[in-house]
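Researcher: Next entry in the queue.
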Amino acid sequence: MLGYAPAGARDGLAALLALDGRLGAILRTTREPLVGQMRLTWWYEALEALDRAPPPAEPTLATLGETVVARVSGAVLAQQVEGWEALLEAPLTATALELHARGRGGSLFAAAATLLRVPPAEAIERAGEGWALADLTRHLSDPYLAAVARTAALTRLSDALGQHWPARARALGALAWLARLDLTWPTRPTGHPARAARLLWHRLSGR
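Model: Structure for this entry, 207 residues:
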């Protein structure tokens, strides 16, 4: 989907997605909530520090410092950590899912929109929330919470994708479409011609 973004913003968008991947890996590889909290706190502080000092010798932080922080502050990027922290709650609740959606997906898409020089739009943040919830649905073992996340994801994605997306934001729109297709076309895997056609139409039309 990076190819949908303006050339000058692709490295920054890739860095934002890499940050999301690093934070998600902490949850996937940490069994003890306290250890996970400590690791996420380190990232929160490291991201905030990008506003005051050169990045440390950590590849994701270094790339963020080079490609993103001039337009999106480290303090704003740190909001994504809060979204992942919500999943450390035990037992997990529907409220935690909402906090995750806003902190992870809403913040990431809002930061990406700023990077892409797209005016702030509620639809973009809601698309990000839906994207995060759609991804989370695949990792929830509790059937009730998985159903809650799926319903909330589809509501947000349907609302956001029902609007016209400006050309500079269509990389984010494509991510939202992929999330929606994962939920509605589970038997059509990545690379299926119907998926490719739907994404191409979005790229051309903004719909």
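Model: The chain has a mean pLDDT of 94.
Researcher: Noted, moving on.
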